[in-house]
Amino acid sequence: MAHAHKLEIFRGLLKFKSNTQKIWGVLVFLTIVTTVEVAFGITKPTVLTHNTFLGMKILNWIFIILTLVKAYYISWDFMHLRDERSALRRAIVWTPIFLVAYLVFILLFEADYIYNVFKDGFVQWNF
Amino acid sequence: MDSTVTAVTEENVWGGGNRPLGASYGKLMMWFFLVSDALTFSGFLASYGFSRFKFIETWPIADQVFTHVPFFHGNFPMYYVAFMTFILIMSSVTMVLAVDAGHRLQKTRVIWYLFLTIIGGAIFVGSQAWEWATFIRGDYGAVETKGGRILQFVKADTGERAALADFARTIPDERVAHEKRNGVWFYEGESLPSYSLNEVKEGLKANPNIIIQTETITDDHKKTLLTREESLQKIKDGALVVEGANLIRNEYGSRLFADFFFFITGFHGFHVFSGVIINIIIFFNVILGTYERRGHYEMVEKVGLYWHFVDLVWVFVFTFFYLV
Q1: Tens digit of pLDDT for each residue in B290-314?
Q2: Selected residues 13-52 of chain A with any CB under 8 Å from a CB in chain B
Q3: ipTM of the complex
Q4: Residue among B135, B124, B126 nearest B84 (CA)
Q5: For a tag on chain A, would you pick the N or C end, based on fewer CB atoms within 10 A?
Q6: Which residues partner with A56 through β-bridges?
Q7: pLDDT in tens, B131-145
């Protein structure tokens, strides 16, 4: 693996000459993404905070998607999953994704239910 | 003889020595650990999400909590955390460069890149310690109601937060902290806040410019501001003065907020700290030429995996704690 680095990112859109160059390229990309996140977080455009998609603010969706994008490039290029065999890669990636998606789904639904109990129930808690 | 030959090939398949994943034992074990650790962190973040969705209308707004930058006064939400994020990504980059130099057996470059990585990690841990200190100290102070909700104070004309010291009256009375030396040696009272509840109440009555901000979030994604009359009514529910944060209560809002802050960033900070320690060990091993003699720098790669993982987790903590 040491001598078999895959040097393209963005599905071959961007090709680098050496592994070192690719690392710097990914750093630039990650920095841009973080800057965009922080800029959105500070300005909080009203269009994005007042419209929702599937019960969540569009701004929050953008944050989560950008986070996953960052996570992809950190694991693919920094942890060089891109250069590993696909069997190893899939075992590492899909196991947590499946378990976490399941857990998050259950917990968030349950939490929303409790929220509604607090809201419409006969128990006073906000006093 | 034919059967023997078959047996020999069978032995090649089952007799060991195959590497279906093309990765060494150590690297696989590191990945096992990282995946399980990722699940632990996901458990923490998911339970954070649970509590947040449960109290979706009253959860503290991160922008109003993390507003400090060292050596600067004023309101700078997010800048410092963004800086910390950048530091950690940067130290991740130097780590990859160290791994890359290791593949090419360039000892001096590995040493320098590892050194930079350690410095980056140390800056990050230091920043986190500073964040904790600021969070624990608190800056404005608040009043907790009988129901355990937090009431904060705002200047009506400017809309800025008002610290207790800005308006609380000083009433001479006898407030004595119960210390260990007075009475039974293992009993100690809680340390007293700078102002008593009565002083805050009287101060609120005397200052027409101070109004109360409750935990409830409006449709505009801001905290609800009460009118002057409502404020005077609401302060009657006050039970005690809260300054800063601990594991029981905090001045920012929901009690769970501080608990999750300490737990998640603390657990992550511990990972960074241990990462720095492991990096230092590896750093000295490289200087001593351990991996040079071994003929490969795979150990740097394995430790690198751990270090990137710490960065990866921070990306998620950053999003769910500070941005969303």
Answers
A1: 999 999 999 999 999 999 999 999 9
A2: 19-20, 23-24, 26-27, 30-31, 34-35, 37-38, 40-42, 44, 49
A3: 0.91
A4: B124
A5: C
A6: A53
A7: 999 999 988 999 999
